[in-house]
Amino acid sequence: MSLIAKNLVSSGPRLSGAKLNFINCGNQIRTKKKLTLRSPQFPVYEKKLLLAACEPIMRRASEIPTSMQCTNVTKLEDEEPHPYIAVLADELKDFMNKSSFIGFYHLNSCADLDYRAARNTIINSGFAVRLYQNNIADLALKSTKYDPLLKFFSRSCKTVMVFGDNLNVKPLLKIEKTAPFLILMFGVYQDRVLRKDELIEISNLPNLSTLHAQLYHTLNTFGTSLTSTLDYHGNTLSNLLTRVSDA
Question: Hey, which family's this protein in (predicted)?
Fold first, then answer.
């Protein structure tokens, strides 16, 4: 190509002074999209089906499992947990047994300062806040009545636990507005699991002391009215006899 271009430039007066642009065709490859070797394109369903049908089935050398054929099989001994993990597990078990209310929050990714501010707000409301890893929860809650709660502890998600002695749910629901990275999932009150909508219904109820006062007033009113009803005829008869004796 370079030789042809030189011949064209040097040939005749008509091409003198003209500028010719040439493209190196050997370095250009026409492709629809950029090739990515790390994420190859998966085959279509028909090709997958054909590959699955053509996959060879190798016969096993023996029907006896390999674990039974090996003559040097030894049972792995259970490793003792780290002393600090055992201390945290005992602390979690103590919290679960002594607290009357336990709240479970799902913790999304957030800044450390934001989490500390939300944690301090919950602590100022009269609750204890703890964040345990899955190995600590597994050591503390396994083979107990709280064993079904282990599904909420894993490496992929973080669960914040809130412990308290009273069922004051309003500050726990308000914390979601100021800290949206904390999501209240459910709560456990006196060994009973309460959903979030049930906790919202409980928060709308008046205070327990107010309910006790209302119940006392209702029972007292009923007793007073019952006493006056039972004594009505006796008092009427007594008044009539008094009038007759005075006459």
Answer: Belongs to the universal ribosomal protein uL10 family.
Least confident of 34-43, 64-73, 223-232: 34-43
The number of beta carbons lying within 10 Å of the beta carbon of residue 56 is: 4
Identify the bridge partners of residue 102 per DSSP, sorted by sequence position.
Answer: 163, 188
Q: Are 144 and 95 in contact (CB under 8 A)?
A: no
- Residue 29: what residue type? I
Q: Which tokens belong to 92? A: 């979690």
Instruction: Specify the pairing of strand 193-195 against strand 158-164.
Output: unpaired
Q: How many residues does the chain have?
A: 247
Lookup result for tokens 């997958």: 48
User: What does the alpha-carbon distance between residue 167 and residue 64 come to, in Å, rounded to a whole number?
Assistant: 58
Which pLDDT tens digit goes with each residue over 188-224? 988 888 898 888 888 787 777 777 888 888 888 877 7
List b or e across 146-184, with b for residues whose CB sees 16 or more CB atoms inside 10 angstroms. beebeebbeeeebbbbbbbeebbbebbeebeeebeebeb
What one-letter code names the amino acid at 22?
F
